[in-house]
Amino acid sequence: MDASLLDRAGALPLPDLYEKVRHHVPAIEWPALADDVAAIQALKRARNAVVLAHNYQAPEIFHTVADIVGDSLALAREAARTDADVIVLAGVHFMAETAKILNPGKTVLIPDPEAGCSLAESITAADVRSLRRRHPGVPVVTYVNTSAAVKAESDLCCTSGNARAVVESLGAPRVLMIPDEYLAQNVQAELPGIEILTWAGHCEVHERFTAADIREAREAYPGVTVLAHPECPPAVVAEADFSGSTAAMQDYVETHRPAQVVMITECAMADNLAVRNPDVAFVKPCNLCPHMKRISLRKIRRSLEGLTHEVTVPDALIAPARRAVERMLAVRP
Ligand code: 13P
Ligand code: SF4
Q1: pLDDT in the model for residue 3
Q2: Which regions form coiled coils (predicted)?
Q3: How far apart are CA 107 and CA 87, in angstroms?
Q4: Which residue among 139, 222, 246, 274 is the one 20 to 30 A from 18 at the CA level?
Q5: CB under 8 Å, gap of 24 or more: what pairs does 280-286 form?
Q6: What pLDDT score was predicted for residue 10?
């Protein structure tokens, strides 16, 4: 390695943090990343800011600068609780919007405003109004992977971590569950007594997995444990040993400690879990989310330096969208 990359003692900078990410970040790249990490830590103190990072963020973000990590539900809960002045959402746009809806008086930043989501793109507020006209009186449960405008038209939200509990909490015979068709079908399989009406939205990461992928993994790694996210098609979930949100998959690994596991979800999930669970072997397949991968340490640094890109939600949407999110937060799985 170039000697200029080393500090005066001949060691890599921030060695404790590098230890956590060394399987994912080549040593040659670490000094530049460590510079961003140090700058982000200082900026967080100066601005009274927190970084909330989703489980799909790359290890060099997840394990170095995040104050709070978790699934969509945990990030929404923590966003509702924080007393920081500035919230940086290392995740995708709908997550930052949810944080803003819960904290209209705070500055909420997203390091890359183009970090979207195929599910959020699949439905508009006008679509929800038209669904309501077609199904009068049927409550609308909306996945948090949607815009504030869609949330504002909904009765309450859900995440993959509480979808079943949210639908059950309504006590209704028919429920519209939008926009993730596969999540809705997977909940339907668990709740045969309720009729769940769906919308044809899909996650571009999870819809690509097939039941054949799982059978191939079982053949290649006999005895492997298969965990699948409920955004996967029902045929994939049916082949898995367990299905749950990213936080539920983490709990499963840390409770059951399988020798070998395949996580049928975004690749960073296994990368981040491997750091804390070196005795578990994580095997492929996995898929990358191009939206989550738009976030980098450099963009988080720039975001805190210039207070960009600020996420705003029109005043008229805040109250109805907040009602739907808060009704969700009140449901205990
Ligand atoms: P959860 O972390 O809530 O399971 O969500 C997964 C996801 O795809 C978020 O975009
Ligand atoms: Fe959206 Fe899927 Fe990416 Fe999550 S993984 S942000 S649901 S496209």
Answers
A1: 41
A2: none
A3: 6
A4: 246
A5: 280/253, 283/217, 283/220, 283/221, 283/224, 284/217, 285/209, 285/213, 285/217, 286/262
A6: 60
The answer to whether 146 and 120 have CB atoms below 8 angstroms apart is yes
Q: Which ligand is nearest to the CA of 122?
A: 2
Dig out the tokens for 116 from the structure. 């979207």
pLDDT at 206: 98
β-bridge partners, 140: 176
Please name the residue that has the structure tokens 């059978």. 215
CB burial readout 214-239, b (16+ within 10 A) else e:
beebbeebeebbbbbbbbbbbebbeb
Question: How many angstroms does the Cα of residue 204 sit away from the middle of ligand 2?
Answer: 7
Instruction: Choose among 58, 50, 178, 198: nearest CA to 115.
Output: 58
Give residue 71 CA to ligand 1 midpoint distance, Å: 6
User: Tell me, what's the pLDDT at 332?
Assistant: 79
Which ligand 1 atom is nearest residue 55's CA? 2
What's the pLDDT at 8? 47
For residue 11, the model assigns a pLDDT of: 87
| Cα(303)–Cα(312) distance, integer angstroms | 15
Q: Which atom of ligand 2 is nearest to the CA of 120?
A: 1
Q: Which residues of the chain have pLDDT under 50?
A: 1-5, 8-9
Q: Which helix (H) or strand (E) holds 20?
A: helix 15-21
Nearest Cα residue to atom 3 of ligand 1: 72
Does ligand 2 lie within 6 Å of residue 292's CB atom? yes
Q: Report the pLDDT value the prediction gives residue 1, as an integer from 0 to 100.
A: 43
